């Protein structure tokens, strides 16, 4: 199921990301901030465990996240969203999956996988700024499932209708939260209007 996270602050930050003149530094900062908003929305129904806490005045009850939370950035560009999740959930574990679209076929090629062994209540947050054809994210979620994760959510910054359809076909159990649903893909399978190549813009490799 796909959710476009609609908020005036996200729209303003998205405008900065889309602008071709935005520097890699500002691009990274706005991408992390948008990711915080997405995670805030995606995780609002997380289960909590009650824990006692001593204030300077008395003992009261507080809460900690109950699930074993694991964030999985899809390399490279997913790294650009990682800081946003870590600032919201400082205890989050991090696993990595490396996928790169083959420039001629547009199909993803997996080159790295390193995920923590999931506990029974593990909850994986897969992050990748771009959902274009859906090939990369579908393969990433399949790999996370194969590793044993049963609860998975996906966060993206820009999604294309084609990619959303692929994810809903391949992973109907997985919710996708995105800052924008764009119009379409071009002949090179880039998202329109999009923001260009997210990895290149994040890491200054244009
Ligand atoms: C980008 C992006 C996604 C993928 C989306 O990565 O970060 O992983 O393309 O395209 P898809 O939905 O059509 O699969 P890319 O392959 O450019 O690798 P990079 O992150 O290393 O730049
Ligand atoms: N990957 C990107 O980085 N951008 C797109 O528009 C599509 C795939």
Could you explain how this protein is built, in words?
- 33% of the residues lie in helices and 33% in strands.
- The protein starts with a strand and ends with a helix.
- The chain is globular, with a radius of gyration of 17 Å.
- The chain has helices at residues 8-18, 24-42, 79-88, 135-146, 161-170, 198-203; strands at 2-4, 48-54, 59-65, 68-75, 93-94, 96-101, 108-114, 122-127, 130-131, 151-159, 175-181, 184-185, 191-192.
- The longest helix has 19 residues, at 24-42.
- It has a single domain, classed as Rossmann fold.
- The strands form three sheets. Strands 1, 4, 5, 6, 7, 8, 9, 10 and 11 form a nine-stranded mixed β-sheet that branches. It has a two-stranded antiparallel ribbon with strand order 2-3. Strands 12-13 form a two-stranded antiparallel sheet.
- With 206 residues, the protein is α/β, with parallel strands linked by helices.
- Helix 1 runs antiparallel to helix 2.
- Strand 4 (68-75), helix 3 (79-88) and strand 5 form a beta-alpha-beta unit.
- It contains six helices and 13 strands.
- Bound molecules: 1-O-pyrophosphono-5-O-phosphono-alpha-D-ribofuranose (PRP) and uracil.
């Amino acid at each position: 199921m796909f959710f476009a996270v609609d908020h005036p602050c996200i729209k303003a930050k998205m405008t900065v990301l889309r602008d071709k003149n935005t520097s890699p530094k500002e691009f990274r900062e706005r991408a992390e901030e948008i990711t915080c908003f997405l995670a805030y929305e995606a995780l609002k129904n997380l289960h909590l465990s009650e824990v006692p806490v001593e204030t300077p005045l008395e003992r009261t009850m507080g809460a900690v996240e109950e699930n074993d939370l694991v964030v999985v950035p899809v390399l490279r560009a997913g790294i650009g969203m990682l800081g946003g999740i870590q600032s919201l959930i400082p205890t989050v574990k991090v696993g990595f999956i490396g996928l790169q679209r083959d420039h001629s076929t547009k199909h993803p090629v997996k080159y790295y996988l390193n995920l923590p062994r999931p506990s029974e209540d593990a909850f994986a947050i897969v992050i990748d700024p771009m959902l274009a054809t859906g090939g990369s994210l579908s393969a990433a979620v399949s790999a996370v499932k194969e590793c044993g994760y049963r609860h998975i959510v996906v966060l993206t910054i820009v999604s294309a209708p084609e990619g959303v359809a692929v994810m809903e076909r391949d992973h109907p159990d997985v919710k996708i939260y995105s800052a924008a649903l764009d119009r379409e893909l071009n002949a090179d399978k880039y998202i329109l209007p999009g923001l260009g190549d997210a990895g290149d813009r994040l890491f200054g490799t244009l």
